[in-house]
Fold this sequence. Notes:
Oligomer: heterodimer
CATH topology of the largest domain in chain A: Aspartate Aminotransferase, domain 2
CATH architecture of chain B: Alpha-Beta Complex
Order of helices and strands of chain B: HHEEEHHHH
Number of strands of chain B: 3
CATH architecture of the largest domain in chain A: 3-Layer(aba) Sandwich
Number of domains of chain A: 2
Strand order of the largest sheet of chain A: 4-10-9-8-7-5-6
Strand content of chain A: 15-25%
Helix content of chain B: 40-55%
Bound molecules: pyridoxal-5'-phosphate
Structural class of chain A: alpha/beta
Strand order of the largest sheet of chain B: 1-2-3
Structural class of chain B: alpha+beta
Number of strands of chain A: 17
Distance between the termini of chain B: 59 Å
Amino acid sequence: MAGLIDVAQGLDVETLRKDFPLLAQEVNGHPITYLDSAASSQRPRQVLDAMREYDETTHANVHRGVYGIAEEATHRFEAARVAVGRFIGAPNPSREILFSKNATEGLNLVANTWGRTHLHPGDSILLTEMEHHANIVPWQMLAEERELSIRWIPIDDDGALILDDLERLVDGVKLVGITCMSNVLGTLNPIGDIARVAHAAGAVVVADGAQSVPHLPTDVSTLGCDFLAFSAHKMLGPTGIGVLWGRDELLTPLPPFLGGGEMILDVRKEGFTPNDLPWRFEAGTPPITEAIGLGAAVEYLQAIGMESIRAHEIALTTYAMNTLAERFGDDIRIFGPKDPIQRGGVLSFAYRDIHPHDVSQILDQYGVCVRAGHHCAKPLMRRLGVNATARASFALYNNESDVDTLANALAETGAFFG
Amino acid sequence: MAGLEDLYREIILDHYRSPRNRGELPSPPAQRVEGFNPLCGDEIVVTLEVNDETVSDIKIGGTGCSISQSSASLMSAAVKGKPVTEVRDLIRTFKGMMSIHESTLPGKDSQDEADIEAREAQLLDVDSLGELAALQGVVKFPVRIKCATLSWNTLAQGLDEAEAESEAGSAGA
Ligand SMILES: Cc1ncc(COP(=O)(O)O)c(C=O)c1O
């Protein structure tokens, strides 16, 4: 069955798994079954090699030296920026792609620059109940400081946003913060529809792409949002680097975020002149090796094709939802949309009344890595009426055998707790 | 490799399945304290009554994993009816048992288990812990230590608050 689906979609999982050294590891005497890519994905050799090759042959600081390798380092760093920009369809990649530390920092950048220049006491922000803390807390911090009010788009029992009331909710709102894909429910949100209503009301739309960019084709020229933040480490790249894309016309007038080297054109005793895009937002030495790694990750994803990756993950999610339902029936409750087309490859579940910590502890004994906890989405946990969930999440390198191993280990968990 | 049986001892599973002293005492007069594990969102509510320097009653509420729930249940059974000074000693000993893990963490010079156990026995009067010693295996699973200590930290806070209140009360009297 795995073969059929994979051939149909042109994704040869068995071959590409060999690109990922970590997948050959053993855990507690079992081959690893890595089902936590929503937290951080594994890296293919192509990424690891690109980073090492750069470090061994080319490393120097960027935008400073006139000597050969410094120029080459700068060239490769900027080429990575353009590659990432093209990957998400940015109209103007060399200006609109800002390198940050991670998605979290990108969202904080928007709050601290756009937020501070556009939001004033009494203004409102609209968020959704399914946001990650990274797209809640920066706004709460600003709300406290600026006396803003925060409204929330609620979710229904299937984990979809309730948008019937959107026009009323968005009325008078200056900014809408919304995740493209929930890291708990897997829900894919209709960013374009929401952005149309938001724009008509005069609001800007900040999208959290941390979960969607690694798994779905992304084209910011049609997506509808005005800013999009994501992290390299969830899309086969290294930790330590993330991306904020913003529309040129919105970024251009913004003040800097952090101050220091790189982000200035001139500094005098009386003051400073900020640099152009994108460097105005990149104070200090950037994560250069990591940018090279992100560039290689994007190249790897593009060579496989995001459409194929998405098709593979829909097939795998379907298989997983069916398998778990068949084997565990009412003992398992999967949160989020029932239709795999409406969701990404993230399955949060409750298994009987066994606490997610205990589930993941027993699964670990079988080499199965799943996440247990609140997934940095406590308002959502409260809405779901749970403290924590267990979460299995898929990437292009997962296969049906991973799902079967998960199901077998879950059966053992059930037996253990009697 | 630490096995599951190190973590999930029979006593632990028993206290998880049938927790002792479950519920909440009316507060006031009982002292009510909440503890949170920010890592997992687990939440514990300890209500206790302190009379004549003795923990005369205690109940445990909230939700959590088998380790946090059984630790809380075992704790409630161990401290109920005990003088506050003894309870404080017990908290110290229990937390001592839970902090020994540092020498067993990977990356440190690995000592064999017998070695570690000998050191533990030396440092702590584990025997004085009675059934609580069943939780000793948790130290081999460092991420779960916070689960085991949640109720104990919450109890310690409750004792501090009870003491502060009784001091304030007697100062006023
Ligand atoms: C939806 C979502 N947003 C934001 C983040 C934050 O990503 P990072 O920790 O890389 O900044 C995550 C990662 O957990 C996420 O899943």
